[in-house]
Design goal:
With about 270 residues, the protein is α/β, with parallel strands linked by helices. It has one domain: Spore Coat Polysaccharide Biosynthesis Protein SpsA, Chain A, CATH 3.90.550. It contains ten helices and twelve strands. Strands 1, 4, 5, 6, 7, 8, 9, 10, 11 and 12 form a ten-stranded mixed sheet that branches. β8 and β9 form a beta hairpin. The longest helix has 13 residues. It is globular and about 60 Å long.
């Protein structure tokens, strides 16, 4: 038996509010979800990819493109909560074992990478970095997530999530506001005084930590910012970060979709 398992899990819902049915919309000849799945397949050293959804239509589509599927409850608030709600099923899926006694001590050796179903340009190298970090320090890292250096014109954009990071690369807080506040300086010039970090909405969790999310109360901070990761922060669970470079982009609105379609020209070449 392997000493650890690494699973890429793609949580998906069909009825997104701002852009309904977005994961099934066309992007250069394939759906957005298909693009995400294809990008994940380019990663290295993982064991399985699984699409996790409560929607029968998504299930049928996922199976049609060759993905394995796990069904989830419909009443969940986030991608992390969707995965946490089926943590026992994820554990069985990861190890091909249904006997809970046999699985008892395997959750700490199971690493789940949460890639959102609306990230068609996810760089497989980011997933590779996450896997390598886990493999070299699995007992150290409970949750890991990528961050990137923000451009000055993105610092005050509430659609871009900012990360406040400690000297040892742990996330102190996530916010839609620019953090930290630079006292006595015009906000237009804050970037001259501090390196601001953006957050890439991908998470890697040890499965025993992901499972805990089910029992954690919804955080007031999570509700205020509408950021799922703040439930872990509020509970005192450390989220470690690592720096990546690139263009990190999710399709949330029609404007995002229009931009994504322009960005696709020459990238996917209709395949």
């Amino acid at each position: 038996m392997q000493d650890k398992k690494i699973i890429i899990a793609i949580p998906v819902r069909l009825n997104s509010k701002r852009l309904p049915r977005k994961v099934l919309l066309d992007l250069a000849g394939k759906t957005i979800l298909n693009r995400v799945y294809d990008q994940c397949k380019k990663a290295l050293n993982y064991d399985e990819i699984v699409i996790c959804t409560s929607d029968e239509e998504i299930k049928e589509f996922a199976q049609s493109i060759g993905s394995k599927v796990l069904l989830t409850p419909s009443e969940v608030k986030s991608g992390s909560e969707r995965l946490s709600s089926i943590s026992d099923n994820l554990l069985s899926f990861s190890w091909g074992e249904t006997n809970q006694t046999s699985l008892k001590n395997l959750a700490k050796r199971t690493f789940i990478i949460n890639v959102q179903g609306d990230q068609p340009f996810i760089d497989p190298e980011v997933i590779n970095q996450m896997i390598n970090i886990y493999k070299t320090g699995e007992t150290m890292y409970k949750i890991i997530t990528p961050i990137y250096k923000l451009k000055s014109n993105d610092i005050h954009n509430p659609s871009i999530v900012k990360t406040l990071v400690s000297n040892n690369h742990e996330a102190l807080y996530f916010s839609r506001s620019a953090i930290p506040h630079i006292r006595g300086i015009d906000p237009k010039h804050w970037h001259d005084y501090h390196q601001y970090w953006g957050h890439v909405g991908i998470y890697g969790y040890r499965l025993d930590i992901l499972k805990k999310l089910r029992s954690l109360p919804v955080s007031k901070l999570e509700n205020a910012e509408k950021l799922e990761q703040l439930r872990f922060i509020d509970a005192g669970i450390v989220i470690s970060t690592f720096e990546v470079t690139g263009d990190f982009f999710s399709v949330d609105t029609q404007e995002d979709l229009d931009y994504a379609r322009k960005k696709c020209i020459g990238k996917f070449n209709k395949n």
